[in-house]
Specification:
Length: 214
């Protein structure tokens, strides 16, 4: 009886330790995915600051000095959304070269200029939530096609008066912008409104499988 009781105690201890190890490994996997997302956001903000504070002022200065025609518009140079999306694509190519899963990164909007940035149902609901509440971050574990992801959504900065040149009346926007995207989408926004969110998914499945196997 003593041996049987001792066996039960050891079994219970082993189960408890295994569960604790799995939970700690799971927490580590989620924390690691969260840190990867934070690093992506740091780079995202750095790129945004560079475009707004250094790149755009040079283009606007060239226009004012008559060295570049007034109606010039190129999303490759002036659209932060366009630039961020393409940098993300190049980043994921490098991840795949290293045999790592790509990270889903999207600047999602309900009224995007480019249809590729159109918010899905969940993203549209989050944009509405960020506009109606003081929420600054949404975080959850998602399962898509049998794979788990850490999903983070953050609101972009609310519209400023300077945004209205390209996002209010199309008559105020650069002619080449309207010629490229039309005059229906991406306009008639309001100052103070949050028009988009940063939507990111970081893969969790591989790390969770390692934790379970460990």
């Amino acid at each position: 009886k003593s041996i049987a009781l001792l066996g039960v105690v050891f079994l219970g201890a082993w189960i408890g330790m295994s569960f604790l190890f799995f939970e700690k490994s799971r927490e580590y996997a989620i924390a690691d995915a969260y840190q990867k997302i934070q690093n992506t956001l740091y780079m995202h903000r750095a790129i945004h600051s560079y475009i707004e504070e250094q790149q755009k002022p040079v283009i606007y200065s060239l226009k004012e000095r008559g060295l570049l025609y007034k109606e010039f518009f190129s999303p490759e140079i002036l659209s932060f959304t366009f630039i961020a999306r393409n940098i993300k694509d190049h980043y994921n190519v490098e991840r795949q070269k290293a045999k790592e899963e790509p990270i889903y990164f999207k600047l999602a909007a309900t009224n995007p200029r480019n249809p590729v940035n159109k918010a899905d149902k969940t993203e549209a609901e989050l944009i509405k939530k960020f506009n109606e509440t003081n929420t600054t971050e949404h975080k959850q574990i998602l399962e898509l096609d049998g794979k788990k992801f850490l999903y983070i959504a953050l609101p972009v900065a609310a519209n400023k008066p300077s945004c209205m040149k390209c996002h209010s009346d199309p008559a105020l926007a650069p002619k080449e912008l309207v010629e490229r995207y039309g005059d229906k989408s991406g306009f008639y926004e309001k100052v103070g409104n949050i028009r988009a969110i940063i939507s990111i998914r970081s893969p969790l499945s591989a790390a969770l499988e390692d934790a379970h196997e460990g």
